[in-house]
User: Fold these one by one.
Assistant:
Number 1:
Amino acid sequence: MGTNLKLLTNYTAMETKITNSFSFIKKYFVLIALLAAASIYLFSQPQGVRLGSDRDVIPGYQGWSGDPDTLTVYIDTSFTAEEKDSIRTAISRWNDAGSVPRLRETSDAPGNISFTRHTFASDTLGLCTNSTDANGDVTSSTIQIGEDQGGLSLSELATHELGHAIGLADTDEAANPSDVMKGTGPTNGSDGTLSAHDSTELAAAGAAAVAEDTDKKVAMNPMAILPGEFAMLDFDLGEVFPPDVIDQTGVFVSPIGDPYLFVESAFIEANLLRVGVFSDPLHGSGNLYLAVELLFPEPYSPMRFWGTHYIHMFPAEPVTFECPFSFNEDDGNVHIDWVEQCTYPLQHPLRAELVVDGTEHIYQRGGGNYTLMLDPGPHLIELYVDDYQVNNAYYAQDILVTGVPESEKAIDFVVYPNPFSQLCRLECPDDTRITIYDMSGNIVCEIQEGIKHWKPSLDLAFGIYFIQFRTEDQIKTVKVIYRN
Ligand SMILES: [Zn+2]
């Protein structure tokens, strides 16, 4: 309730400040008030395999399938009575903060959200997996609690993971040390009680679920803006508008679910919407969201979108980087290792989202590499990494999970995918020497020992190549097709 009151105050202030017509803002407020919270992971639709490319829009969390009022939470029998109470504390925290859908414990398995245990690699404390349908709406969520909780109480860890299930993204530890939703680092200092920023994100998440069909536009500013300072955000409207059209256009811009952000001015200049914003110095570091409505004169149609950008205490300069990962499998566990290979050149913490087969969205408390249980067979693994602000990278590869225990595997040399574009994986024992030849027998590349992929240099022609694997007692050559 507290959250809604803050929203009301904020929206009312915005109306008097910058607009003459309140209809759009009222519509937004009513939607938020009625449907309130749900979610906003920086979620994304799979867009085919690509490397190192920027997200061109902020992918939007779309809420739960069927927009339920209540989600059931099942806590499985691996938790003691005392541990179940800790998870109930977490459930109450989100309900008390105004979460819609509300959360309600059930004794029937599975719940919409299910708590279970899993044995993780040591750097993984908890994992939330949201399953989505073809529309991108969440259909179920599984929360796995690690044996090692890294010094976090169960109630704090459970609060964090439940936040993902209702649509909140990880936040930057360095800038938001008291957030329960921070993606890495120690306790938030209050054993998992929500911070003001957690509550703001909950409100924005609710609005995002309501506005699932609304376009999103990221501001063109190359860096995050600073809390507590005035900033001008520019949004590309896609066409140049003549002055007389601009004069007759109604421009309505307001913050979404954010009592710490204020719109000071908003106007169109040629092809840009320019929005002057000011934020409270206490504004958390993360995303900012603006509801934008532009009412153009005939014959132009109205334009509505969410303007988004980043606000951050420690703005990162724009850089490009890549986040390739390697994959290996041992006795039913699949390891996705990316941390050591990520080329991010700055000191900011990073956030990752792993998407399996386009429908399983995995968030991991504590950051780091992933250890997963996957069914045998082919899987598409997509990794999104960002620095909680302007810089991001994407990497995807098809993997084949054999399900065969390591001890039963014969030594084999495998290249996949084949044919490939950009990069192929090389499966072989660690001490294998790998040499790549072209059709004429010329050496094209010698792969450094320990590296299990081949990424041809950009000037190498497409065509057929031969990959030779050589160990102490074996030699094998695999024909591979490199194509566009
Ligand atoms: Zn998380």
Number 2:
Amino acid sequence: MSDSIIRLFPLPSQEFPLKGLYLSHNLRENKRDSGESFVYSNYVTSLDGRIAVPHPTKAGMVVPDQITNPRDWRLFQELAVQADILITSGRYLRDYAEGRAQEILRVYDDPQFADLKDWRTERGLSPQPDMAVISGSLDFPVPPALIQGDRNIVVITTSRADPERIKALESQAGKVIIAGEGSVNGYRLVESLLEMGYRTIYNTTGPKVLHLLLAAGVLDRLYLSFVNRLLGGSPFSSIVEGEQLDPPADFVLNTIYLDPHALNGLGQLLTSYNRV
Ligand SMILES: NC(=O)c1ccc[n+]([C@@H]2O[C@H](COP(=O)([O-])OP(=O)(O)OC[C@H]3O[C@@H](n4cnc5c(N)ncnc54)[C@H](OP(=O)(O)O)[C@@H]3O)[C@@H](O)[C@H]2O)c1
């Protein structure tokens, strides 16, 4: 893997190795002194805004093969390794149970990420970040592989959830938090996680959960990798779906890097934005 990434912003422009690029963003340092949460999210997208398209043979959506790439995946891992907790969804656990989704942080089963395992150990962090599962339906199994070891799972749901299902999940998975009436509220979600001691929070889910984070004004940083490719087609998922945001969610540019080596030289832009 050729390593060279070119920083285009902030100036001056400079070359960096890919490995370590997002570790150098030191996410755990953000708002450290105030003790507030730092919530971030990351998407790989086509230039025409597609982050997911229909699965070719099954129901549901998947990230298009045409935009996934190992260089973006490395950076995703660097973001995940810095978290106290990863936000996932009922959809992820359903896909995981069906064998359609993989472990999010791959530092234990993929030798190319062994350095990231050391990164957590050296900082006295638990081997894996804990996991927050957002779900209204609570219609998912808890895969045994996900609750092995000392990882904690917290389920975040609404007051409309089935009480019997909540009891079952409490005995199987751990804590179940009610953070909204008809829908999980982003502010209550992050407040509950902070009360449990989770400060550095990585959202790995799709457009509906991003919407609830944006609507509550709790997303601090957005990472977007723009693969230099357009896909067309419908239906598709974009990074955010739901009612129009009022007020709009304003972000300012934090960094842009050109990765000229992704997808056999096609390239991608790696960007990040901070909430205003
Ligand atoms: N390209 C990328 O970088 C990228 C990144 C992330 C995801 N994706 C793709 O995007 C697609 C959709 O992602 P996704 O399913 O993870 O995310 P999502 O559309 O944000 O939401 C998924 C699940 O979260 C729960 N949920 C969402 N909003 C809720 C609310 N307000 N209250 C309560 N529960 C809520 C629901 O679970 P229940 O159904 O259990 O109630 C819902 O099924 C997937 O194909 C995924 O692979 C792509």
